[in-house]
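User: Fold this; tokens only.

Assistant: Input:
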Amino acid sequence: MDSQQVNKGKCIIFSAPSGAGKTTIVHCLLSKIPSLSFSVSACSRPPRNGEVDGKDYYFLGIEGFKKKIHENSFVEWEEVYQDNFYGTLKSELDRIWNEGKTVIFDVDVVGGLNLKKIIGNQALAIFVQPPSLETLERRLRFRSTETEDKLQMRLNKAIQELSRANEFDTILFNDDLEIACKQAEQKVLKFIQTP
């Protein structure tokens, strides 16, 4: 993505291990700050129950995702697990910036760091820190969306992701969701309002 495209507007990047609460915080911010617009990520996996194409993700399938890679359609993308791709479409940023809004991302840790590297000072990268690995495991088990193998894979990934928290602009502790949402709102508004 060329720098001319990147300098069109600001971005807020929320990253965290799965189960840390980043999606809930992002939804809270979207309901309170009208100038934010959610960047819908693309993925290669099929939709889960209740997920809507174009709202939760752009569900491209493996071949569709690889085609977009070859067309250079992504700002960033990664293969999170084998044949499990996630990425940010350039067209999504253009859509939001053309509306005069600030992009808000809900992405994994590697994706968040990649976006920060590409977008630079126009982006505020926030790492959502869970109270503990035990809390994270409890939240993931409570979801009941995965097999034990997948759950263990997510927990192993979470350990690696937690070690990268200091690479973000700021760390937001999510011990109490209400407090975390208020703190996130303050940080985001300050960033958006700073010229």
